[in-house]
Design brief:
CATH architecture: Alpha-Beta Complex
Largest sheet: 8 strands, mixed
Order of helices and strands: EHEHEHHEHEHHEHHHHEEEEH
Number of domains: 1
Strand order of the largest sheet: 3-2-1-4-5-6-10-7
CATH superfamily: Ribonucleoside hydrolase-like
Mean pLDDT: 95
Bound molecules: calcium ion
Helix content: 25-40%
């Protein structure tokens, strides 16, 4: 019996590779893909998800979701991923259409019908927050909620304090992190340095010479240049595939601890910051005054601190072969 996945995505170039990893995994059945505005608008994200599923020969249903964050205008990341989110390579329109019905309805219905499903989120958390607002009990039907988002070491990629997915819709991230969902947080810091595909890794992928391998590299061509501009590191950074490798095999994340995590929504300076109570000071009676609004909350978020680089890259290669 395969494990059941549900994937929420603002499908741009790294999301596409993560979708390939899930759709190609023999251990997993993807029950649905829900799209959300983020790196690109939701129409483009939906088109990209459909196109990627078609490349994999998959007819997994795709549902269009939120067009903008809960309380803010959308600020996309087309400067990073290309205007179409896939490096502006001129990929054709997908043949299939999104299913009728909103992603939020689909999330609720799929979780209700498949208790125990594993939820993987690769974009802003708008759809998930809307589903939780409508049905708080939804969290009980999800065994894992693997979230690509946040910057627990406080080196952000939109501002110094915040990673894109949480920064884009901080109100939604706060709702999800304060919910009963069993969140496993895969922060941006795991996707830098040695986790980035180097020139040698890229050559190894291209040597596979499959349609999917070429697509994975080509659609990230703009992202490679943007990552160099952003960080000074050359290579392809793939946050969503890193998160997916941990969703597929939790032991690829090699250091974990459970903490209270909350998201800043008010400050201009630290909007979207993932505040991790790493020393569990909120649980100390001495700090009750300072942290009174956390007094009755449990430390419920599993934060991943380290990645098995070799196994993450092996999982990627396996998926593209
Ligand atoms: Ca994404």
């Amino acid at each position: 019996m395969p494990r059941l996945f549900l994937i929420d995505t603002d499908t741009a170039s790294d999301d596409a590779v993560a979708l390939i990893m899930a759709l190609r995994s023999p251990d997993v059945r993807v029950l649905g893909i829900t799209t959300v505005a983020g790196n690109v608008g939701v129409e483009q994200a939906t088109r990209n998800a459909l196109y990627t599923a078609e490349l994999c020969g998959s007819d997994t249903p795709v549902y269009r979701g939120a067009e903008k964050p809960l309380a803010r205008d959308l600020e996309d990341a087309t400067w990073f991923h290309g205007m179409d989110g896939l490096g502006d390579r001129g990929y054709p329109a997908p043949r299939a259409q999104a299913r009728s019905g909103h992603a939020v309805d689909a999330l609720i219905e799929i979780i209700d019908r498949n208790p125990g499903v594993e939820l993987v989120t690769l974009g802003p958390l708008t759809n998930i927050a809307l589903a939780l607002q409508r049905r708080p009990a939804l969290a009980a039907g999800v065994t894992r909620c693997v979230v690509m988002g946040g910057a627990p070491c406080c080196v952000g990629n939109v501002t110094p304090a915040a990673e894109y997915n949480f920064w884009t819709d901080p109100e939604a991230a706060r709702i999800v992190l304060r919910s009963e969902l069993p969140v496993e947080m895969i922060g941006w810091q795991l996707c830098l340095g040695d986790a980035v595909l180097s020139e040698a890794d890229i050559r190894e992928v291209l040597a596979i010479d499959s349609k999917l391998a070429r697509f994975a590299i080509d659609c990230n061509s703009r992202a490679r240049r943007a990552y160099l501009e952003q960080t000074g590191e050359d290579g392809i950074s793939l946050p969503d595939p890193v998160a997916m490798s941990i969703a597929l095999d939790r032991s690829v994340g090699t250091a974990w601890s459970r903490h209270l995590v909350d998201i800043e929504t008010d400050s201009d300076l630290t909007r979207g910051m993932s505040v991790v109570d790493q020393l569990n000071v909120a649980g100390n009676p001495r700090n009750r005054g300072a942290w009174s609004h956390f007094a009755n909350r449990k430390a419920g978020t599993q934060v991943c601190w380290a990645l098995d680089i070799a196994r993450w890259k092996a999982a990627l290669i396996r998926a593209l072969a």
